[in-house]
Amino acid sequence: MMRGFVDFMVSPAGRVGRVVAGVVLILVGLLVLGGTAGIILAVIGVVPLLAGAFDICIFAPLAAVPFSGKAVRRMSGR
User: Fold this and answer.
1) Which domain holds residue 41?
2) pLDDT of amino acid 2
3) Which of 4, 5, 14, 23 is least enclosed, having the fewest CB within 10 Å?
C-alpha cells in the first residue's frame, strides 16, 4: 500500500501536486490566516514545495525506499 503511494508521489503528477499543495499552504497561511498561525502554516507549506521541487519524497522511508524520486523510479523500472 505505502509503496504505491510513494510511486505516485515520485511521478510527475505527484511532484506537481506537492508543489501546488505547498504554494497553497503558503498563500493561505500568509494571505488568509495571518498572524502566528499563518506563519506556521506557511513554513509547513515550504516542506512539500521544496520536496516536489527537488524530487524528494519524505514518505519514502516508510516504504523502505530511498528519499530520491529518481532512485525510486529507477527501482521501479521507470
Assistant:
1) 2-76
2) 67
3) 4
